[in-house]
Amino acid sequence: MLLYNGQFILEKDLKLPISNRAFQYNDSFFETVMVVDGKLRFWQDHVDRMQEAAASLKLELPLYFTEGTIEQQLLQLAEQNQAVKYGRLKLKVWRAGAGLYTPEVNSVDWLATVAPAAPTASESISIGICQIINTIYSPLSHFKGPNALIYTLAGIEKKNSSYDDLLLLNPQGVVSELISSNLFWLIQDKLYTPALDTGCVNGIARRNIIRWCRQAGVPVKEVYFSPERLFEADVLFAANVIGIRKINLLKGVILKSESSDIFNKIMDKHFIQA
């Protein structure tokens, strides 16, 4: 079952015109939302980022995106797809109408899909450094969708490597993010993460980890680090809406993994505060 422009339909009944602007021009964005125990985790943060994305793309979101109606429909969709306990929901939003590069309208069409999922594994991961593509900072780089091909190409490189994930750098060789996660590290009880103008996505997990640290009095630094400086980290970890995973290997070199009360508290608190 799908949810298309507020209407529940079967997947086989979905029909989109060839003029669809997501297909023709990638004139769109998307959100990945976790459904956990009958709730949309971090929903208000997703709403905030959708509003930011819409403003960047000059799109006009319907009022029900921010007034609660869509939230209830998305939970109904999760129930119909047996994904209420734990599910992965994707909400795709694109500009309606046709046109060439210059659009006819700024209103939107949207589609939601959801499927049962499982919590992320707890094992540490190994990462390499992406060689074929860089992140690109722009007014569109902070949300998901417009730069999808960067992560697609990085994913192809990862598939042909021995690593669990790849570290993406910006054109100046500065650390930006992983393929589908933001990057964090702790040095002497300070939290570090790449600055947004390295081209990384302003992830939902990123927002929540930074918010919690600041509320807890943990210093937060958004920085410009070379990959080599990551070896200074006491703990290096990746985070997205699905989960948090330590990184134990970078370019084949074993990383430090010090005992950290702050990291343990981030693990304990991060998803409880949804």
Automatic annotation (TrEMBL):
A family per Pfam: Aminotran_4
List the InterPro entries hit by this protein, alphabetically.
Aminotrans_IV (IPR001544), Aminotrans_IV_CS (IPR018300), Aminotransferase-like (IPR036038), BCAT-like_C (IPR043132), BCAT-like_N (IPR043131), Class-IV_PLP-Dep_Aminotrnsfr (IPR050571)
Which parts of the chain are coiled coil? none
Keyword field: Aminotransferase, Pyridoxal phosphate, Transferase
The reaction(s) this protein catalyses:
L-valine + 2-oxoglutarate = 3-methyl-2-oxobutanoate + L-glutamate; L-leucine + 2-oxoglutarate = 4-methyl-2-oxopentanoate + L-glutamate; L-isoleucine + 2-oxoglutarate = (S)-3-methyl-2-oxopentanoate + L-glutamate
Its EC top class is transferase
| The EC number(s) this enzyme carries | 2.6.1.42
- What are this entry's molecular-function GO terms? transaminase activity
What Gene3D superfamilies would the database entry show? 3.30.470.10, D-amino Acid Aminotransferase, subunit A, domain 2 (3.20.10.10)
Which cofactor(s) are needed, names only?
Answer: pyridoxal 5'-phosphate
Superkingdom of this entry's organism?
Answer: Bacteria
In which family does this protein belong, per the annotation? Belongs to the class-IV pyridoxal-phosphate-dependent aminotransferase family.
Xref: PANTHER family: AMINO-ACID AMINOTRANSFERASE (PTHR42743), AMINODEOXYCHORISMATE LYASE (PTHR42743:SF11)
Stated name of the protein:
branched-chain-amino-acid transaminase
Q: Which organism is it from?
A: Pontibacter aydingkolensis
